[in-house]
Design brief:
The complex is a heterodimer of chains A (732) and B (161).
Chain A lengths: L1 H36 L10 H11 L2 E7 L5 E7 L2 E7 L6 E4 L4 H12 L3 H30 L13 H31 L29 H4 L6 E5 L10 E5 L2 E5 L6 E6 L2 H14 L4 H31 L14 E6 L4 H15 L4 E5 L12 E7 L13 H6 L7 E7 L8 H12 L4 E9 L3 H15 L15 E11 L7 E7 L5 H4 L11 E5 L7 E4 L9 E6 L5 H7 L6 E7 L13 E6 L3 H9 L7 E7 L9 H10 L4 E6 L8 H7 L1 H9 L3 E6 L1 H15 L6 H6 L3 E5 L1
Parallel strand pairs in A: 9-10, 9-11, 11-12, 12-13, 20-21, 20-23, 21-22, 23-24
Antiparallel strand pairs in A: 1-2, 1-5, 2-3, 3-4, 5-6, 6-7, 7-8, 14-15, 14-19, 15-18, 16-17, 16-19
Chain B lengths: L1 H19 L6 E10 L8 E7 L5 E8 L10 H6 L11 E2 L7 E9 L8 E7 L5 E9 L15 E7 L1
Parallel strand pairs in B: 3-4
Antiparallel strand pairs in B: 1-5, 1-8, 2-3, 2-6, 6-7
Chain lengths: 732, 161
């Protein structure tokens, strides 16, 4: 629901907002340039009288002196009955040059206000500001929900590059854009008179001026008393009317000043409405407050990018929404599938399940969880497939589910399948919650709650098998997760390790095929160390994922593969001859990457988990302090990347290499090595270190327990560190 | 029956004041032509009005520019009309663009012609100058049809009776 409040106004207003934002950014930077090019005297340095005197000395007939919000001073005058305007040095009162307002700035200002379309355009601009405000508020709420609470608003965001771009830019620009939108709405309403602007109407002086011979402006006490910084405008009296006074507009209000005595005839202070309006204008334009103008300008520049990235995200999500074929009506179906999905990926699994059950002869109805009906006439089973949003919350298509559940009548046997990412603290939290509520309400359990980690097709297939056995139908769920087009790659290197310790492990490198001629030669797809490569073993549709040890800039795609007993893909890869081909695609894994900066990085892994860690170290040319803890079996058999790692220590890319070998006398596991190094680790963590763990699930569990114990005295815990992006896991 | 009488009575009572407010017969139509210089800014606000022989505000003839909050820039007119009670909705139009010409017809009472009255024009442009009383021409048969230029935005102003 919240997402709809974000994407609908976003789509409608994208162009409007992009135009407002680009023109707004231009005006912000224009005002900064204006401010830089004008000298602003210190308060108390120049009085209005001094400035007026200097201008009057040059021009017999001065009409007006204006001080703009950016601090530049403009004098309007007549010279031989011809109107003129000049820029005045605020410090000396000397002429700087003729004042020629920029046509470009004027046109951009008008575009920004009204799209050059008069009042209709002003209404459009106002609506654009309102849409922007809605987007800022709903966007902030989405961001909070996505990251797991207000306190977590500064956590690193996760997701695809476009999603992260949208999140990070949005977070950066949120305050500036909200301020621009809010003040823009106010100004729009003030333009149409809905809100007061408190402008004082022009009025004749209440006290009659003395009409005596005039003094020069420099000798007028009332002008001497006003500092230049407070000046808005000084209108000179008509030369041929001795009864005409000066009109002095300051930040405080409007005064009339007798041109002969220099006395203030009357003073009308600005009302509250005027003060509010002027503050709003200052906050909107940033004029007179250049750091604000900079903030607003930069924030505005992000708006078109946000709009474009938002559009891409929306389109991708829409394109990912599967078309469910043969979707039977809710009251005719024997099997109901309800889907709780945030990013639509769960829908893909539901479609696969729907197709398999239909093929097995079932009447299947698939719907969002929010469409839970009060009763299902013919349903024999309910299958709930749900993701979890943020910190254990309901995903967007399941927001109303628990409420609707309160109103349901009968109960049917139910199976819940949770989708999530095991590296989040509340893995499948919502699925667990739904299962508990259903059990508490007396719904029979068809199958215990299972979970699918990171869209694992294997997890899903295993659940399908279990489900099939329960309902007496053979179910084969082969779900390819939105499989991108694969690229053919050739094996170019194979380094074998571990033969002595019965754990054949290989570092395999692949390059684009060399055959096919110049025009058909293809480059490697783009990837970073730590991303995943999906490899399809011949004759299967289920990809296996491996963490990448290289980046595309290295020119090779490198992975570490341990031969699993009976493993289809690992056997295929181990037996691949030089030049043998694989079909592969990249799945970005931006959540598993070391933070840039100067803080130390602690890399922990065992066995083939060294792969991405070695990749991070290889690319650490900025010599960020990286500390590697790695566990293997025997230094002579499976010390993956041994020579390279020693070289990295020498050239400074690796600050310290700590190894643990389990099959040597007095050896141990990597967590033992960590425990022995507790003092160093505490010191590193106190210096803001980030921990990246890569390897098997058992190793990761052992490492987590050991680190928890080591960090406890510091008052640090892994849940907090994870939420801060300081404890990352790539576990398989 | 009663109802019919009542209706006629109501119609009569509505018609009588309307007759009383009809413009005096002794007025003539005057065409005011204001041609602006190509100053190259946003549309100009103009106020065309009458002042008496002592320079005191008499009445508004025409206003160009729709946003009342900018009228303070037409300062001489705005000050003068501070006590004017007549509404100006009907004689207000759009602002006049750079280089454009505003041509309007107004009714001016015969009694004001050749009686020391003057037509004045205040002009103002956003981020430009304000020109109170930029044009000041005597409302006389002698001045009829003679273009006058201003010091600000007005290239030529004339009235034709």
């Amino acid at each position: 629901m919240l997402r709809r409040h974000h994407s609908l106004p976003g789509l409608f207003a994208a162009l409007l907002i992009a135009a407002l934002a680009l023109t707004g950014a231009f005006l912000a930077f224009d005002s900064i340039i204006d401010r830089i090019s004008s000298t602003v005297p210190a308060t108390g340095q120049v009085s209005v009288a001094m400035l007026a005197e200097a201008v009057q000395a040059r021009h017999a007939e001065v009409e007006r002196i204006v001080r703009t919000a950016s601090g530049s001073v403009i004098a309007y005058y007549f010279e031989a009955d011809l109107p003129g305007a000049e820029l005045v040095d605020p410090l000396t009162g000397q002429a700087v040059g003729p004042y020629e307002p920029s046509n470009l700035t004027r046109t951009i200002t008008n575009l920004h206000r009204s799209f050059l379309m008069g009042d209709a355009g002003r209404v459009a601009a106002g609506l654009g500001a309102a849409a922007m405000l809605v987007l800022c508020v709903s966007g902030a709420m989405l961001l909070v929900a996505r990251l797991g609470g207000w306190f977590a608003i500064l956590r690193p965001s996760r997701g695809t590059t476009v999603q992260r771009l949208h999140c990070e830019l949005g977070r950066f620009a949120l305050i500036g854009l909200t301020l621009s939108a809010l003040t823009g709405c106010w100004m729009s309403l003030a333009t149409f008179g809905v809100l007061p602007d408190g402008a004082l109407a022009e009025f004749a002086p209440l006290v009659q001026p003395s009409s005596s011979e005039r003094l020069s402006p420099g000798r007028l006490a009332a002008l001497q008393a006003v500092d230049l910084s407070a000046l808005r405008e000084l209108t000179f009296p008509y030369p041929d009317n001795l009864a005409d006074p000066y009109t002095l507009t300051t930040t405080q209000g409007i005064a009339h000043v007798d041109a002969a005595t220099g006395q203030v005839l009357d003073f009308t202070p600005n009302g509250l409405a005027r003060q509010v309006h002027e503050t709003i204008i200052m906050l909107h334009t940033g004029r007179g407050l250049w750091p604000l103008a900079l903030l607003l300008g930069l924030a505005a520049l992000t708006a078109p990018v946000l709009a474009a990235a938002g559009g891409v995200i929306w389109w991708r999500r829409r394109a990912a929404l599967p078309k469910i074929r043969q979707n039977i009506g809710a009251q005719s179906a024997d099997t109901i599938i309800l889907v709780g999905s945030e990013g639509n990926s769960t829908w893909g699994f539901a479609a696969t399940l729907h197709a398999a059950l239909t093929k097995a002869g079932h009447q299947v109805h698939t719907a969002p969880m929010d469409s839970l009906a009060p009763r299902y006439a013919k349903a024999e089973r309910l299958l709930i497939l749900t993701a979890t949003y943020g910190d254990g919350d309901a995903p967007s298509s399941a927001q109303m589910f628990l409420q609707r559940l309160e109103r349901t009548g009968g109960v049917i046997p139910v199976a819940v399948l949770g989708f999530g990412d095991r590296s989040f603290p509340k893995f499948c939290g919502f699925a667990t919650q739904v299962a508990e509520v259903l059990r508490a309400k007396g719904w029979p359990v068809l199958l215990d709650t299972w979970s699918v980690d990171r869209q694992s097709a294997q997890n899903f297939a295993a659940w399908g098998k279990a489900l099939g056995e329960t309902i007496g139908t053979k179910l084969e769920l082969t779900h390819a997760v939105a499989r991108p087009r694969t690229t053919a790659l050739e094996l170019s290197g194979h380094v074998e390790y571990g033969a002595e310790s019965q754990t054949p492990t290989a570092i395999l490198s692949f390059t684009p095929p060399t055959t096919g001629g110049f025009l058909r030669r293809r480059a490697l797809p783009r990837f970073e160390a730590g991303d995943l490569v999906g490899i399809l073993p011949p004759g299967t549709a289920l990809p296996r994922f491996y963490s990448l040890a290289s980046a595309s800039s290295d020119g090779v795609l490198e992975i570490c593969v341990r031969k699993q007993p009976g493993g289809l893909c690992s056997s295929f890869l181990h037996e691949l001859p030089p030049g043998g081909r694989i079909e592969a695609f990249i799945r970005p894994n931006p959540a598993f990457r070391p933070n840039r900066g100067k803080a130390p990085v602690i890399l922990i892994g065992a066995g083939t988990g060294i792969g991405p860690l070695a990749g991070f170290i290889r690319h650490n040319t900025r010599h960020q302090p990286m500390h590697l803890y790695w566990g293997g079996r025997h230094p002579n058999s499976d010390f993956l990347y041994g020579p390279e790692l020693r070289k990295y220590v020498e050239d400074g890319r690796l600050a310290r290499l700590n190894t643990a070998f389990s099959r040597v006398p007095g050896g141990g596991y990597v967590q033992d090595r960590l425990a022995a190094d507790a003092v160093t680790l505490r010191d590193l963590m106190q210096h803001g270190a980030q921990v990246l763990v890569c390897g098997g699930r058992d190793m990761a569990g052992g490492v987590a327990r050991t680190l928890e114990a080591i960090l406890h005295p510091l008052g640090l815990d892994l849940v907090t560190l994870k939420s801060e992006g300081r404890y990352l896991e790539d576990v398989y | 029956m009663n109802k019919t009488f009542a209706t006629i009575g109501l119609a009569a009572s509505l018609a009588l004041p309307a007759l009383a407010l009809a413009p005096p017969a002794e007025a003539r139509s005057v065409t005011l032509t204001t041609q602006l210089r190509p100053y190259g800014g946003n549309g100009a606000y103009l106020a065309i009005y009458l002042v008496d022989a002592q320079g005191r505000f008499h009445s508004t003839l025409r206003v160009a520019g729709g946003k009342a909050k900018y009228y303070s820039h037409l300062s001489a007119w705005a000050r003068g009309r501070a006590n004017e009670t007549t509404r100006i909705d009907g004689i207000t139009g759009a602002s006049v663009g750079s280089g454009q010409t505003l041509r309007v017809s107004v009714d001016i009472a015969d009694a004001l012609i050749d009686a020391g009255y003057q037509i004045r024009v205040d002009t103002a442009v956003e981020d430009g100058r304000d020109n109170p009383g930029e044009i000041s021409v005597p409302l006389t048969t002698a001045a009829n049809g003679r273009p006058v230029s201003g010091r600000g935005y007005v290239a030529a102003f004339k009235f034709d009776m």
